[in-house]
Specification:
CATH architecture: 2-Layer Sandwich
Order of helices and strands: EHHEEHHEE
CATH topology: Alpha-Beta Plaits
Number of domains: 1
CATH superfamily: Dimeric alpha+beta barrel
Mean pLDDT: 94
Helix content: 25-40%
InterPro entries: Carb_Metab_Mutarotase, Dimeric_a/b-barrel, Rham/fucose_mutarotase
Number of helices: 4
Protein name: L-fucose mutarotase
Strand content: 25-35%
GO molecular function: racemase and epimerase activity, acting on carbohydrates and derivatives
Largest sheet: 5 strands, antiparallel
Shape: globular
């Protein structure tokens, strides 16, 4: 298993943040998007928020690659529709490259007996 952690900001507007959370509440997921994630090798995906900053934890199988995920995303129109819709709510971090959303974070610390 692999684990990746990402950060992204939301537009700092309470109404838009609530809309974004509604899209991510139980039962509101888009089945085509969820299936695409599973097909890409994403086992578990969690998003946390504080203020307008978000943090995403993504656990994948050992065969997952970002290239494979991008290739699959490009073949599913509903995934493209979802990503376009989410840009209404999302703001790239200041150091993001053009068109880049979620920024992969560097792990700088871990405590405990189990090291990943």
């Amino acid at each position: 298993m692999q684990r990746f952690c990402f950060a992204l900001d939301l537009v700092d507007d309470p109404k838009l943040i609530q809309e974004y959370e509604n899209y991510h509440s139980p039962g509101n997921d888009w089945p085509e998007v969820t299936k695409n994630d599973l097909d890409a090798g994403i086992i578990n995906l969690q998003i946390y928020r504080t203020g307008n900053r978000m943090f995403m934890i993504m656990d994948t199988d050992d065969n997952f690659s970002f290239e494979k995920k991008a290739a699959l995303d490009a073949t599913v129109p509903k995934v493209q529709e979802w990503e376009k819709l989410m840009w209404k709510y999302q703001v790239p971090l200041p150091w993001a490259k053009e068109g880049e959303k979620w920024i992969l974070m560097d792990k700088i610390f871990q405590s405990g007996a189990k090291k990943q």
